[in-house]
Write a structure and sequence with these properties.
Helix content: over 70%
Keywords: Membrane, Transmembrane, Transmembrane helix
Protein name: DUF2231 domain-containing protein
Transmembrane segments: 13-35, 92-112, 124-146
Number of helices: 4
Radius of gyration: 18 Å
Strand content: 5-15%
Structural class: mainly alpha
Order of helices and strands: EEHHHEEH
Largest sheet: 2 strands, antiparallel
Number of strands: 4
């Protein structure tokens, strides 16, 4: 299922969604966490991104695993590079999944009134723990999407 799309390898197609959605989720999550005035406008985009982004990363990860089983990538040094790339992709998926969960918790924990007043439906300590978690996981998501993309790009452009 994750091998090909219209006869083309699926991985180069699916990674584009992950490369776009991960930074968007991280950016919108941080904005929602630290800028109360933005919450009224970006709550639903945050929810949509928190639902879509883990799926995009999952598709990229699974299509990459199918792509790596190609006989063209059987040599030892290539497999080492692929394993490093896969490890980064697996970590990225876990980070994005965590970010999506805490972003959804934050989106439903903070109610925004018509006057852009944020009403927090949780104890203040819980609110700040979620805010710190969103910011930390957003930084990690930026890092891992860059590292995973960088290792993949080096394999493609520098040759195996």
């Amino acid at each position: 299922m994750f091998d090909r799309v219209l006869g083309l390898p699926a991985h180069p197609l699916f990674i584009h969604a992950a490369v776009v959605l991960v930074p968007l989720l991280a950016l919108v999550g941080v904005l929602y966490a630290v800028w109360p005035g933005s919450r009224r406008h970006i709550r639903w985009p945050l929810i949509a991104l928190a639902i879509a982004t883990p799926g995009a990363v999952f598709f990229a990860k699974e299509s990459g695993e199918a792509f790596s089983e190609s006989p063209n990538f059987a040599a030892g040094p290539i497999q080492e590079q692929i394993e490093q790339h896969e490890d980064l992709g697996n970590t990225l998926f876990l980070v994005v999944l965590g970010l999506a969960i805490v972003a959804l918790v934050m989106a439903f924990m903070v109610n925004v009134t018509a006057g852009s007043v944020s009403l927090i439906k949780a104890p203040v300590v819980v609110h700040w723990v979620v805010v710190v978690a969103v910011v930390a996981l957003s930084v990690a998501a930026f890092y891992y999407v860059f590292r995973a993309g960088d290792t993949g790009a080096h394999m493609v452009w520098e040759g195996f």
